[in-house]
Amino acid sequence: xxxxxxxxLVRIDGExxxxxxxxxxxxxxxxxxxxxxxxxxxxxSTATGSGYFEGGGTKIFCAVHGPRPSASNYTIDGxxxxxxxxxxxxxxxxAAGRQGxxxxxxxxxxxxSLQRTLASAVRLENYPKCRxxxxxxxxxxxxxxxxxxxxxxxxxxxxxxxxxTDIMAGSTVAVIGKxxxxxxxxxxxxxxxxxxxxxxxxxxxxxxxxxxxxxxxxEQFREAIKVCCTASAQVCGLMKECLVKKAKKWLKKRGRSxx
Amino acid sequence: MESxxxxxxxxxxxxxxxxxxxxxxxxxxQINNILVATLVGTLVQEKSKGFGTKPTLKxxxxxxxxxxxxxxxxxxxxxxxxxxxxxxxxxxxxxxxDGKPVREVFKGTINxxxxxxxxxxxxxxxxxxxxxxxxxxxVISLGDRHSYFLSTAKNELGVIHAKSKxxxxxxxxxxxxxxxxxxxxxxxxxxxxxx
Amino acid sequence: xxxxxxxxxxxxxxxxKDGIRSDGRAMLDIRPVTLETTVLPTASGSARVxxxxxxxxxxxxxxxxxxxxxxxxxxxxISFTVECSSLASPDFVGRGGADLSAELGQLxxxxxxxxxxxxxxxxxxxxxxxxxxxxxxxxxxxxSGGNLFGALSLAVRAALRxxxxxxxxxxxxxxxxxxxxxxxxxxxxxxxxxxxxxxxVTLASQGDRGIYMADCTSEEESCATASITMGVSPLGKSCGxxxxxxxxxxxxxxxxxxxxAAQLGLEILDATDRFLKTDIDNxxxxxxxxxxxxxx
Lengths: 259, 195, 296
Fold this sequence. Notes:
The structure holds three protein chains of three kinds.
Chain A: E1 37-41, E2 49-55, E3 58-69, E4 79-86, H1 105-119, E5 130-140, H2 145-160, E6 168-176, E7 179-182, H3 186-191, E8 194-201, E9 206-214, H4 218-258
Helix pairs in contact in A: 1-2, 2-4
Chain B: E1 9-10, E2 15-18, E3 23-24, E4 28-31, E5 34-37, E6 41-46, E7 56-61, E8 77-85, E9 89-97, E10 100-111, E11 134-141, E12 148-151, E13 158-161, E14 171-174, E15 177-179, E16 186-188
Parallel strand pairs in B: 3-7, 10-12
Antiparallel strand pairs in B: 1-6, 2-5, 4-5, 6-7, 8-9, 8-11, 9-10, 11-12, 11-13, 14-15, 15-16
Chain C: H1 6-17, E1 33-37, E2 45-51, E3 55-66, E4 77-84, H2 98-113, H3 118-122, E5 125-127, E6 131-143, H4 148-162, E7 164-171, E8 180-190, E9 199-205, E10 212-214, H5 218-222, E11 226-232, E12 238-244, E13 249-250, H6 251-285
Parallel strand pairs in C: 4-6
Antiparallel strand pairs in C: 1-2, 2-3, 3-6, 5-6, 7-8, 9-10, 9-11, 11-12
């Protein structure tokens, strides 16, 4: 109901780099090019807010419940609980999958990582005694799954009307030999020497979450972070567009009902 | 920096003005000297309320009306349903806050000493509230970890809707009695004064 | 986690702005480190690291012959168990230390699954796809006074440097699959590639642009707004990095933090390697070694 669609997939063009024959990747992208992105908010009816992010073969649903009364302790600031799950069929190993199964180590780590990133922007002091639950579900992980979770979760929080001082997006860069590969596919991730993942708060221009796996040269590492930030900023731009579109739709609807 | 154009769409994190020119209203928060939007919606500028005060910037949220998410705050007028009565307190579920229905039900407690203004020590909760009553109350504190603390110690606060033992909606007689039209029996309640 | 009042935090942050820390160190100075190897007679390799007489980590290695994983048939396995004992902090009583233990274990796993330690893992292989060494590395946090990641990775590395494995003789069978192994309990060898092992360096940002410190005490940690932990290999490569804290770090600061972390890591690696070399030489030559003891 009332969800906006982005029509055909939005293609983001990287800047600079000339397309040379050898620069083209398996899927025809340039090294600094993101996969086509599709976003949607407010598609889940029972959640306070929801967000969907799709980038290439990576598909993520995220729902936000609350703020609702916290059952546990009295806290002056609100608390936020994040739950990141990979579907059994997401094409990724190490997923605990089914509801009720305890989370895998990795999922737990990513959940706390997501919590950290989001908590840096959510104004929890406005929600005393309350909890906000963020659950993200990775339907399909075609590379860069976690970075996309950050993006989807931000969309969902914004849709839920939770007060935030920033919008966060995540992005991944893989290092393959000497080459930095933006937004790697699952195959590219598998052959990479190392990957760098960044959670980026666009307005404050701050890195809120950093993760590096594998092996990366120091210089490459620093460069990769910059590239990640640029990519995240692009995604943030799209997120804003998506949210504003949705907002217009809501206001129009309210205008009608108030008449 | 001047204020952004009014009726312009903003998203969380967007700068909307400077703190020395504007007051932060709903959906706007001050970080250092900058006012930042925290919600998705349109920017609204309200004129300053008097001499020497600054105009207020607030966000008209797209999805929800102002005040969302509805959380009980000190001073909020709430409508609640009594779910448990003990000699010391009545437990209620908060259903409406400041005239707006909540998404999630919050628990509240009306303690013996907060029921009315006078003769506080002689209050008998059973003579003030009964299960299922709808009560108008005010939030006086965030309470403990289970519930918010509410008060009905004002003339206009108290039971606004109650059914008699016969299951018929009662009519107020005075500030502490209600009449069942079917059986003509009277029951005790802390009745809210009609306004 | 230490609880600090706002005033105390302010004190630490304001000091940091001027490059001053409460114990007199410069921003990137580390506290004195005490390192002792082969402290546990029952483990094949062990080390104890103390930083600034507060943080205290004990690591022991137990090797075992096992089957390699199917994904990496030519590599041995290094597995970690980190225990934050309730000795170290009242917060760790019961299940309180479980989260931190998991976090520490994950970082170590990340460092030791990185390609920089591939040769080290390969040297643990006995028969490709059939037999390999699995090193069970158990780390115990005895006392925590900040910089647990750094101390832990240092202790693990030192223990790996001195671990000795019994020599294994492969007895060829009739068919290819029938190879058998015999463990020679008399002869031992050290792990040559253990020098590849990385260490972790944590730098904590104190909120302001360009202000960050190394080897934080627990007080400094509890008022840090964000921190970066980076694994540094002896070749100066990054082999796993994670962030913590909700403050966020701007790009320039982050970039210079990484550079300083790498440099600091190399310095620590260099210093410990020099120490370990004399330590190992002394042990080899049978020179008398005065144990530091537990309560020095």
